[in-house]
Amino acid sequence: MTVQNASCNQGANVFQYTYNGTHNDEWLFEISSGTYDGFLGSKYARDNYNNHLNTYCNMTDLGGNCANFVSQCLAFSGKKYNGNWYVYKKNNNHLVPQNVTRLNDSWELSDPSPWISAKYFGQYWSSKVQNDTFTPQQIIDNNSATTAVYGKGDVVQILKRSSLQEFQGYHTMYVTDVEDYNNKGTLKLKYHSSDTKDRTLSSICASYNSSDYKIRLYKIL
C-alpha cells in the first residue's frame, strides 16, 4: 500500500503498488483511540531510542529532541492529538530542520508547541494528568514515593530554575520499566537528544541534585 504521489494531504489517495522503501510506502500503526497502553509505548521507546522515524520531525539540530521523542511514545501508546499537542507533516523537504523557517515549511505545529518543547510539554501535560514534583534528594531518599504510583508508560521531566526563579521543563524522558538500583526500586528511562537506552531515575537525581533542579512525574492514563 502506498500514498499516491507521496502526498501528505488529508484524504490523499492510497493504492496498491510495488514496495520501494520510500516515505509514501512505509506505515506506522497506532493503537485505537480511547485506549492507553504503556507496553506499546515502551516497545516504541526500545525500538527507537537511537532512531528517528520520518513520520515525525527530528529536532536534534533545533533545540533538542527529548520532548518530541516522548510525544511519539505517548502517541504510539494511544494518546491522540489534542489541543496544541500535535504534529503534521506537510512534505519531506526538511526531515531534520536546522532553523524555524525549514521547520515551518515541512511541519505543522502549534506555536509554541508542547509536542517538541520540554517547557511547553510540561505546561500542557501538568494540566491534563496527575503529576507530582520532588526535589532530587527526596527521590534519592525515598524511591518508593515514585515507584508506588508511577511506572511503565509514564513520563519524567527534569525541571530547571529559570532566570525568573520559576521551574520549567528542561529535559523529558519516558518510563519503560521499574528496576533495582542499590537494592531499591527505581524507574528506568529512555530518552533522546543524548540517545539513551536505559538510565535509572535514581542516577538522574544524583546528577541533578541541586537546588536549581526538581523532578516532575506525570501519570499517563
What would you say about this model in short?
With 221 residues, the protein is an alpha+beta fold. The protein contains seven helices and ten strands.
Characteristic key phrases:
7 helices, alpha+beta, two-stranded antiparallel sheet, single chain, SH3 type barrels, 221 residues, 25% helix, 6-stranded antiparallel beta sheet
Proportion of strand residues = 15-25%
User: In percent, how helical is the residue content?
Assistant: 25-40%
Which secondary-structure class do the elements indicate?
alpha+beta
CATH topology-level fold name of the domain at 130-219: SH3 type barrels
Tell me about the largest β-sheet: 6 strands, antiparallel
The radius of gyration is 18 Å
Distance between the termini: 33 Å
Write the layout of secondary structure elements.
Elements (H helix, E strand, L loop, with lengths): L1 E2 L10 E2 L22 H11 L17 H12 L10 E2 L10 H7 E2 L9 H9 L3 E5 L1 H6 L2 H4 L7 E7 L5 E15 L2 E8 L4 E5 H7 L5 E7 L2
Antiparallel strand pairs: 1-2, 3-4, 5-10, 6-7, 6-10, 7-8, 8-9
